Amino acid sequence: MNTPYHHGDLKNALIQAGLHILSKEGIQALSLRKVAKQAGVSHTAPYSHFADKQALIAAIAAEGYKKLYSQVSAAAQRHSDNPLSQLTEMAWAYVQFAIDEPDHFKVTFSGVVERENDYPEYVEQAKRNFELLVDVVVACQRHGVLAQGDTELLVISLWAGIHGFVHLLLGNQLPSALLARYSARNMLLFQLHHFIQSHQTETFHE
Predict the structure, then answer these.
(1) Rounded to the nearest 5°, which phi and psi values hold at 112?
(2) Angle made by CA atoms 129, 173, 87, in degrees to the nearest 5
């Protein structure tokens, strides 16, 4: 089924068409001509927005980061008076985005964007997400929820744990018996609880 194209929204139509091809057929199958066909536009239409295939891939990933930021930042704002709740609900928003839009999540974090610095919007959107998590971890450190130390190192450790959980979940790698007893949210909360416990008194060293 072709991606519906609405006049004035060509860029988004091309991004959605490219996402569909990437998620179903992989990067080798992606071309601007094929994306144009999927979107139902002329084969030259994509060039009004994208110089080449890599530019389209970067735009698809940037859009994924935008959607993720929208959900995660909304969770942070709802709990701005409680850093622990902020951290918990931001982590769940991250997982929820992956559950709701698995194709976009996988493409965004697939590492298929080459020469990242050639695409400032992509870099900016990725940076926004990271900085948001840094801000919340700093707040947690300030309120004693997490130990003092190298904040960015702590952020990477936290992100790796959440991201790893998402990959197990999306890849159907979690034991079915466990899934029968606990929801994805409960498992995430358990993971975060132990992460926080292990980093409340720990001091980081190089």
Answers:
(1) -85, -5
(2) 30
Are 15 and 64 spatial neighbours (Cβ–Cβ below 8 Å)? no
Q: How far is Cα of residue 71 from the mean position of the Cα atoms in its chain?
A: 10
Residues whose CB is less than 8 angstroms from the CB of residue 130 and which lie 6 or more positions away in sequence, other chains included = 155
**Could you give the C-alpha distances from 54 to 28, 30, 49, 99, 180, in angstroms and in order?**
12, 10, 12, 26, 42
Alpha-carbon distance 131 to 152, whole Å?
9
**Domain 1-50, classified CATH 1.10.10.60, yes or no:** yes
pTM of the predicted structure, to 2 decimals: 0.85
C-alpha to C-alpha distance for 72 and 51, rounded to whole angstroms: 31
The predicted-structure confidence for 22-69, as pLDDT tens digits, reads as follows 888 877 888 888 888 888 888 888 777 888 888 888 999 999 999 999
Q: Fold match between 1-50 and 60-198?
A: no
What kind of architecture, by CATH, is found in domain 60-198?
Orthogonal Bundle (1.10)
Number of Cβ within 10 Å of residue 65's Cβ equals: 22
- Please, are residues 94 and 31 in contact by the beta-carbon 8 Å criterion? no
Supply the pLDDT for residue 46: 76
What residue spans define the domains of the chain? 1-50, 60-198
